[in-house]
Amino acid sequence: MADESSPGIAERMVDKMNEWASEQPQFTGQVEAMWREGLKDLQNAILPAFPESQRGVEEPGTPLSPTSQQVTQELGVSYDQMLESYAPPSTPVMQKEAEMER
Question: What is the pTM of this model?
Fold first, then answer.
């Protein structure tokens, strides 16, 4: 007989699907990115007929082009950690002077 306390294969599959879904970006953000990409494609198709017109530039956040925030999150580096890595190491004398200035 199957153990009553262990989840069945269907329950494990549902749990895994929910876990994967939580890692995916929001659907509305993807739709907005596809809209911007489609608009740029349309502009690139129409604008060559008008040589003096202004061309659109590529922007982060379009499909397959991550934003700088997404890249930073994937690297696992926070802004504070980055600043700390650039700061020179402090000596006890420097720490004492900093405390006295406060």
Answer: 0.34
Residue in the structure block whose two tokens are 């002077």: 97
User: Do the beta carbons of residue 82 and residue 68 sit within 8 Å?
Assistant: no
Given a contact cutoff of 8 angstroms between Cβ atoms, the answer to whether 37 and 63 are in contact is yes
Q: Write the pLDDT tens digit of every residue in 24-81.
A: 777 787 888 888 888 888 887 887 777 776 666 667 777 677 888 888 788 877 777 7
Q: Please, what is the end-to-end C-alpha distance for the chain in angstroms?
A: 71
- Evaluated on CA atoms 72, 77, 80, 86, the torsion sign reads negative
